[in-house]
Amino acid sequence: MSRGTSGGAATNPEGTSSASASSSAPAPSPASVDVGIVAAMSIEVGFLMDRMKRVRKYAGPKHTVIEGECEGKVIALIVAGMGREAARRGAQLLLDGHRPRSIVSAGFAGALDPELRRNDLVMASEVVDLEGQRCAIDLGVSQHAPRPRVRSGRLLTVDAIVRTAAEKAELRERFAADVVDMETSAVAALCHERSVQFLSIRVVSDEAGVDLPAEVASLMTRSGSYQVGAALRAIWNRPSSLKDFWALHEHAQEAADRLATITAGVIAELP
After folding, report:
1. Taking the model in full, what pTM does it have?
2. I want to staple 87 with a disulfide (CB 3.0 to 4.6 A). Which of 98, 183, 219, 265 is the partner?
């Protein structure tokens, strides 16, 4: 393993750092971790967290950093919330408190390329945003490893959920991007500023030709959780939406499982 466990933080029987309860930010680990993972929603990385061993938790006022071992590496993971500002803040906490050698932005993305299918993986070779800023990414891992339905491509970061097939087609035409999300460009920019290796791994949660339910934007909080009241109102106003929401949940579980498998393989390859 790249960093010995003897350097880990002291934990109580529940696995929480003894300093975490009183600290105003995630407690710094005593040595650099190998990989930092930034996600927007817990559902995106739940299966990845299940793969972590010897877990330690560093609790701050707004976020908890989960540190543990995966594929022979020590990783620190944060669920930062949706959007560029939240993603940058989460990455900043990891870089300041846990000093990872590499940062991975991992999560769901909408397909803009009509050839992509649900649960396909895209490792961004270039990240662009609505302002036209571009960031090329040196993948730094083998592109020839046996990973079915994994490809590199251009990722576009936007500021709101892209819900309809028409919106996806318009963004595809404007930016020639393959997938779209709401976080990656902010993390990529910060890592570029800090000269930290960066990767983005995104699993397709909805295909280019698919419309998401009309209520999906109102259901999501900025933290990436569901608003129960909004969900109940949506079901009351359109009973068939219950079926749509259940399908979205099942699809998210499948995507997260796929994302965990590929991300663990990439972690194993990172220095």
Report:
1. 0.79
2. 183
Instruction: Please give the domain boundaries of the chain with CATH numbers for all domains.
Output: 5-269 (3.40.50.1580)
Q: DSSP for the chain?
A: --S-GGGSPPB-TTSBBTTTTT-SSPPPPSS--SEEEEES-HHHHHHHHHT-EEEEEEE-SS-EEEEEEETTEEEEEEE--SSHHHHHHHHHHHHHHT--SEEEEEEEEEE-STT--TT-EEEEEEEEETT--EEE----S-TTS--TTEEEEEEEE-SS---SHHHHHHHHHHH--SEEESSHHHHHHHHHHHT-EEEEEEEEEE-TT-PPPTTHHHHB-TTS-B-HHHHHHHHHH-TTHHHHHHHHHHHHHHHHHHHHHHHHHHHHH--
